Amino acid sequence: MTVHNTQTYHLYSYFRSTCTNRVVIAMHLKGIPVEHTYIDLGKAEHERPEFEVLNPSKSVPVLVIKDSNGNETVLTQSIGILEYLEESLPTLTPLLPPSGDAVQRARVREMVNVITNDIQPINDGRVAKRVRAIRGEA
C-alpha cells in the first residue's frame, strides 16, 4: 500500500546510522515515499549551522513533514518518528500489534528498548566526545 495524502516527507540521514535505518525500514513497510538528504557525519556535516537550525541536537535522523499548505513539522529521534508514523498513518502497514493486544504491544516496546538502550553501542560522535570530555580525555 502506498501513501495517498498531501504530505511530503524528507529524511535527513546517514548510511551507518541504525537510528536512521529504523525510520527508513518503517517508511518502506508503510509505503511512504520519502526524499532523502544524506548528512555525512564523518565530514561533520551535522555540525554545520544550517543543519543545527533544523536539529539543534545535531543528530540524525530528522524527518521534515510538509503539508499541502506548506506548513512544516520537524521530528527528530527515531522512536518518536516511528510513533508519529504509526499514529498519523494507522491504515498503512502497522508497526505495532492491534490496539486491543496490550501485552504484545508492550512486548514490541520492550524489544525497542532493548535495542535502543541496552545493546546499541555509543557510536554517536557527539556523545562519545562528551563522555571523553567528562572523563578528562582528549
UniProtKB/TrEMBL annotation:
Pfam family, one: GST_N_2
Domain GST N-terminal, residue spans: 7-93
MF terms in GO: glutathione transferase activity; maleylacetoacetate isomerase activity
Family annotation (InterPro entries): Glutathione_S-Trfase (IPR040079), Glutathione_S-Trfase_N (IPR004045), Thioredoxin-like_sf (IPR036249)
Signal peptide: none
One GO process term, biological-process aspect: L-phenylalanine catabolic process
Entry superkingdom: Eukaryota
PANTHER family referenced in this protein's UniProt entry, alphabetically: MALEYLACETOACETATE ISOMERASE
Protein name (record): Thioredoxin-like protein
Origin species: Aspergillus homomorphus (strain CBS 101889)
